[in-house]
Design a protein that fits this description.
Elements (H helix, E strand, L loop, with lengths): L1 E6 L2 E6 L1 E14 L12 E14 L15 H16 L2 E5 L5 H7 L5 E4 L5 H12 L8 E10 L2 E6 L4
Parallel strand pairs: 3-5, 5-6
Antiparallel strand pairs: 1-2, 3-4, 4-7, 7-8
Amino acid sequence: MYKRLRLRGLNRIIMNKIRVTKEFSFEMAHALWNYDGACRNIHGHSYRLFVTILGISETDENQVKFGMVMDFKDLKTIVKKNVVDELDHSLVVFRKAEGESLDSVRKMYEKVIVFDFQPTCENLVAHISDILIPELPEEIALHSLKLFETATSYAEWHASDN
Ligand SMILES: [Zn+2]
């Protein structure tokens, strides 16, 4: 959609910027190294991830994506390949947790990911932004991410904050 505004006698076309969001989910185990609570033990969460992009709807009616900022299907493909498939059913740990304790764990888990950061909800959402930004088409901005670790706890990344 676009509006025509008559501004100082000029006929200007104003494009609407639109945010588009898609929800994803994945199961992931983690352990928080040196943490003073129950999350120091390996345990899992059902994560929910909301990916919001920002762009302008296609205005060329001859284009197959006419009226769309980005095809939901294309957004799904990018997020699934680069984030969901990587993290789903994995165990993620901070590199300092590597060593004797992980050797025995590796016998049970094939998919152990060692990060350079503590795998908190906050650090994970920032990491996901780093992964997704270069994967999006040039004309599409990553607006924000919301990562739920539990039904009532989430962390957000916003482009405008960073
Ligand atoms: Zn946890």
